[in-house]
Design goal:
This protein has about 375 residues and is of the alpha/beta class. The protein folds into two domains: about 110 residues, Enolase-like, domain 1 (2-Layer Sandwich); about 230 residues, TIM Barrel, CATH 3.20.20.120. It contains 13 helices and twelve strands. Strand 8, helix 8 and strand 9 form a beta-alpha-beta unit. The radius of gyration is 20 Å and the shape is globular.
Length: about 375
């Protein structure tokens, strides 16, 4: 079997309400759907989420496809290694492109072997995966209402974006706790907005709300500062932006800077590298959580297979999927209750709707979601004092 074609389509879907976080506002979710075709008629489907889709798509089409055409798609590790070596000098942005390609290769390989992707990653540890109830920066009453709706539907964990205003964060968590009680785990995410002293003060002020963990309170480059925050507070600390690949995971572990490693297949360069991070974390006695780039259905399915394939992921996966109003899949993933069935094989267990893909490809995808102006002044990471 040989690869005959690599095709990409960039698309965007609307969300239920603006997704406001410490550094900007998302109005949609978007991704690049990758289709790898073969001379035996088997097609693998993948997806590249990421920060700059025009660039990522160019990398797939103009740089990496040359290493796939004519090759045996079952030799996934060899193909990924070749793409990694080619892009070594620009590996951080290339990782997003390689990730989507690798998902498609795994989907194709699993289909050819008559199994599912989780089995290629080591085998299923579970058949269902919990999804987090995702809350963004908003008025306390609005978030309390959304939190209560998530819990009533069956979601067992919540995540709240924080970091702009301490009083608002405090009042929001108080309102959520009043609405859902003390037994529902709540994690918060500051997206690098705080300095070290601010992070310590902010977290100490919020820890009475029984936080599950605090995600990336300080800038990604400040591993020493993250370790200092961890030593200064009683709440577990998660590394998100600071954990982008295996090497950064090793740096975090050496510094004993966090309790949780937030793992993104897209940033790590694929499902294999994400599993490597999970293995390193397990060896070091750390936990892992699956992060979210607001993936569409294809990459969300891949994330479910990842979480199902390892005991290193005890937390509900991050996902914006319940807030997305459309998708490229023939049949949407069912997240209504917060407990998600891992799609059965073959492959990822999902299929792309060609008409939906064409329709969603008509929407513009270049959207500023990072550090857009907030009341006329864009924030700077680590600068809230």
């Amino acid at each position: 079997m040989r690869i005959t074609k690599v095709d990409t389509t960039t698309c965007r879907v609307p969300v239920a309400h603006p997704l406001v976080w410490a550094g900007g506002t998302r109005q949609s979710a978007s991704g690049i759907v990758v289709a790898i075709e073969t001379d035996e008629g088997i097609v693998g489907i993948g997806e590249c989420p990421g920060p700059t889709l025009p660039t990522i798509r160019t990398i797939v089409d103009r740089e990496l496809a040359q290493f796939l055409l004519g090759q045996d798609p079952l030799r996934v590790e060899r193909l990924v290694h070749r793409m990694e070596e080619f892009s070594r000098n620009w590996s951080r942005i290339a990782a997003y492109a390689i990730s989507g390609i690798e998902i498609a290769l795994f989907d194709l390989k699993a289909k050819a072997l008559g199994t599912d992707v989780a089995n290629l990653l080591g085998g299923r540890c579970r058949d269902t995966v919990p999804a987090v109830g995702y809350l963004f920066i908003d008025e306390p009453e609005a978030n309390a209402e959304r939190a209560a709706a998530f819990v009533e539907a069956g979601f067992t964990e919540l995540k709240l974006k924080v970091g702009r205003d301490y009083g608002q964060d405090h009042d929001t968590l108080a309102a959520i706790r009043d609405a859902v009680g003390v037994d529902v785990p709540i994690r918060i995410d500051a997206n690098m907005m705080w300095s070290v002293p601010t992070a310590v003060r902010w977290i100490r002020g919020l820890e009475k709300f029984e936080l599950q963990y605090v995600e990336q309170p300080v800038p990604d480059f400040d591993v020493e500062g993250l370790a200092q925050v961890r030593r200064s507070v009683s709440v577990p600390i998660a590394a998100d932006e600071a954990c982008c690949d295996v090497r950064s995971a090793l740096d975090l572990i050496r510094a004993d800077a966090c309790d949780v490693l937030v793992v993104y297949p897209s940033e790590a360069g694929g499902l294999t590298k994400a599993r490597h991070i999970a293995a390193v974390a397990e060896a070091a006695g750390k936990w892992c959580a699956v992060g979210s780039w607001a993936e569409l259905g294809v990459a969300t399915a891949a994330n479910l297979h990842l979480a199902a394939s390892s005991e290193a992921f005890p937390f509900a996966i991050d996902t914006h999927y319940p807030l997305q109003l459309d998708d490229v899949l023939v049949e949407r993933l069912d997240m209504a209750t917060g407990i998600v069935d891992v799609p059965a094989g073959p492959g990822l267990g999902v299929a792309v709707d060609a008409a939906a893909l064409e329709r969603l490809a008509q929407l513009p995808v270049r959207e500023a979601v990072f550090y857009d102006d907030i009341e006329g002044q864009a924030p700077r990471v680590g600068q809230i004092l």
